[in-house]
Please model this.
Amino acid sequence: MHIAVKNYTLNNNIEIPAIGFGTWQTPNGETAVQAVKSALEAGYLHIDTAAVYGNEKSIGTAIAESKVPRESLFLTSKLWNTERGFESTLKAFDRTLRDLQTDYLDLYLIHWPANARQFNNWEEINAETWRALEQLYKTGKVKAIGLSNFLPHHLEAILKTAEIIPVINQVEFHPGMLQQETAALCKKHNILIEAWSPLGTGKMLTNEILGEIAARYAKSVAQLCIRWCLQHGVLPLPKSITPTRISHNLEVYDFEITQEDMAVIDGMPYIGGSGLNPDEVDF
Ligand code: NDP
Model:
């Protein structure tokens, strides 16, 4: 079944399909080509990748070989941490375009903020990297620019020198991981939250409470988690390489989680996830 995915509107008035297809840990080569082809066939029009995933070339191949016109697609990639800074960001962006076989991106994100643990001048590094994204945006090579893994203090620092407000902050978001402070600050600036690991990289799927709630709607835990993101006004990026799961994860528009069940899920303790703290990571 081909599902019509709804859209969110970004703060620069660009529309973005409200469910994106995740590709982290999807190996470059036939696996990535087939996964992305399955996603396009199922009705995803939004693909999320990153230079560090190493699969941009295969994603480019899948898109080129599909019947979906480039302009119907929303394509996101991310700048890896070793490429921060003005000039190196511009070069990394060009490599990403080449690998994806396209001449523009819909969205380019700074994958992780430089943090104080690694850099005394982390604020300056992030500001220079952002300045490069602003330049790419002004030249039209990218339709929207944003951030990933930025905690409130990283975001506050960027906003001090930013000419352009980021459209998105992509952060870990799933039951037990609500990112309340980051989400509140993003809301204040009209920055959309994208949920990475909406299924907790699979760790949500065996949780009993989620299982009981999902069963009451005759849905799977995966569908419940994806729907829960949407009802929070967050954009989920479920990943799968399995065709049946890929299409199943879009079937989330035919039920609504009640306020009571939303509150139960919101109140759940941490039940697993990546555990990566942007202030602590050393990559
Ligand atoms: P998810 O939270 O989406 O979970 C994916 C796992 O769940 C895979 O093992 C997949 O298996 C399995 N799965 C998916 N759907 C189902 C289903 N319906 N039933 C049962 N199992 C299912 O994964 P990710 O951690 O990859 O996060 C999603 C995306 O977010 C990434 O792919 C990436 O695009 C982005 N991301 C961004 C980060 C950042 O720093 N900005 C960090 C991490 C992720 P299988 O594939 O075998 O079918």
Summary: The first strand starts at residue 7 and ends at 9. The longest helix spans residues 122-138. Residues 22-25, 48, 111, 148-149, 170, 196-202, 205, 220, 222, 237-242, 245, 248-249 surround NDP (CB under 6 Å).
